[in-house]
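User: Please fill in residues for this 262-position structure.
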């Protein structure tokens, strides 16, 4: 996809939304402008890079923004600058390109959300999966153990932001506040019982307490969603059991037609 953008000044590592001409941004809010007046900015999945003609990457998509500056709300991508953008150039002709996969991990923890506990399990997800998946972008999210908040976030990450892999940590047991499995099951398009069974078998080989895990796994849109326990030890045990199956699963999800037994 080719885009013509009028860039606003933006320091490396900072982000601004991409608005189309003809759509007003919130007052006093700096934005990049898409030159085409054909409507709101196109859907660009998280991890997409915007490349200059010389092949250098100037921006990467790291999220989305919902704008209500118009009578009807619309979504537009957030572009994080990969180098300092002066804004002196009247326009940039950029091509979009995505190499690799995007990963979101969602840690469910009331104490973590209140700042009383550090998230130790979420970052481990990215560390482990990067061993078998070409991760081009990863982002962590922290939520309290609230079922409606998790359902909303999973839907946003999968269907709006386009993350390839989404892992939750915590909330897979029997405590009254353990809500990850039921929240996940209600938004999945279809489950992947093989992943769930492989994780359970690996965990049972370590501890009989794994029998009470209710972790879910499945597909939402084009995203692979996996529930994981909350401890670092359990995250490692569960992901190690399935990590080598995930590249093939994601290839198939995206239409790979090669024979599975090849």
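Assistant: Residues filled in for all 262 positions:
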């Amino acid at each position: 996809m080719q885009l013509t953008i009028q860039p606003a000044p933006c320091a490396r590592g900072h982000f601004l939304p991409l608005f189309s001409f003809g759509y007003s941004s919130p007052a006093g809010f700096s934005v990049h402008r898409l030159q085409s007046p054909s409507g709101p900015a196109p859907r660009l999945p998280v991890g997409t890079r915007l490349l200059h003609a010389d092949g250098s990457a100037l921006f990467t998509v790291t999220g989305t923004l919902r704008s209500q500056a118009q009578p009807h709300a619309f979504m537009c991508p957030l572009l994080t600058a990969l180098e300092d953008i002066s804004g002196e150039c009247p326009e940039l002709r950029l091509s979009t390109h995505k190499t690799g996969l995007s990963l979101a991990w969602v840690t469910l923890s009331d104490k973590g959300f209140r700042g009383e506990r550090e998230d130790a399990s979420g970052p481990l997800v990215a560390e482990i999966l990067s061993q078998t998946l070409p991760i081009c972008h990863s982002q962590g999210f922290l939520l309290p153990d609230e079922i409606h908040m998790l359902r909303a976030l999973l839907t946003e990450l999968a269907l709006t932001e386009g993350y390839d892999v989404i892992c939750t940590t915590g909330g897979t047991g029997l405590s009254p506040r353990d809500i990850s499995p039921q929240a996940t099951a209600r938004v999945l398009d279809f489950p992947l019982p093989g992943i769930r069974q492989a994780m359970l078998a690996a965990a049972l080989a370590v501890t009989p307490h794994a029998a009470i895990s209710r972790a879910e796994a499945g597909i939402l849109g084009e995203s692979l969603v996996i529930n994981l326990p909350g401890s670092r030890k359990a995250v490692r045990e569960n992901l190690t059991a399935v990590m080598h199956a995930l590249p093939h699963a994601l290839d198939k999800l995206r239409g790979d037609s090669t024979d599975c037994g090849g």
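For context: The chain has seven helices and 13 strands.
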